[in-house]
Amino acid sequence: MTNPLAVRVRGLVKEYRDGTRANRGIDLDVMRGEILAVLGPNGAGKTTFLRQLTTELSPTAGDISIFGVDAVADPQGAKRLMGISPQEAGVFEALTVRVHVELFARLKGLRRGEAKAAAATAIAELGLAADADRRVSALSGGQRRRVLIALALLGSPPLLVLDEPTTGLDPTSRRALWGVLLRAVRGGTTVILSTHSTEEAERLSDRIAIISAGHLIALGPLRDLVAKVREQYRLSYRDPSDVDGDLQIRRFEAFADVEAEIRGLALSEYSVASASLEDVYFQLSGEQFPADRLTETQ
Questions:
Q1: Which residues 6+ apart lie within 8 Å of 260 measured at CB?
Q2: Which residue stretches of the chain have pLDDT < 50?
């Protein structure tokens, strides 16, 4: 029987020379053909974790296996199984999008004709066809992000590791990328992505891993994580006497308590929502999750 695991991580620790511990004993299995979202705020250890998976960083301690290949002992063998889109990466500014993607396809071992076909497919899937003959230097931040994702898709690697792939994308481009990833998964690809977006994690992933202060504090499908939340209702409002004040958020176990709070505060404008991934994060970490970020319009 084929091993159902794509990635196996045990006791993963990364300690920097200044004593900072970015990851603190992470254990994690990723199943073949699933999308795993890694969620957490800046400084939580998400990027360090992904950089160890992709062999860019060597762990201080622990084991990483990629489709049975020891990523610590054989980093090149493990890396050949991945398509990687880092949070930041250099690009060849003077090249056009088409030439850039074709070049990387050749570097991945594709023959000239195969490289042209693979590049054309990736460019079309990422909505870059209209920009294919523009120099990379002329692209917006969001367009450059899509070029990096196109590079990761080349050669149909069995594992995609994407660090905040939708940062800088407008809502339309973001949803188009979700479609690309879902099609890849239907073809057998496994996806690990980090994100700041609770919406993205909720709507796209099969399972969600929450990292806080270097610890894996939760792992599972959204429904299982939300079921653990004690306070199942969230009331958001602004103080009626200070309409320009900060948004207030209160959490309650029972809906009757929400109604009592609304009456007691004489609220006329408010919203009530059932528990979400944001509430899971708050209950486990004691911190409010930062707002989803969309910064680019191209």
A1: none
A2: 1, 293-298
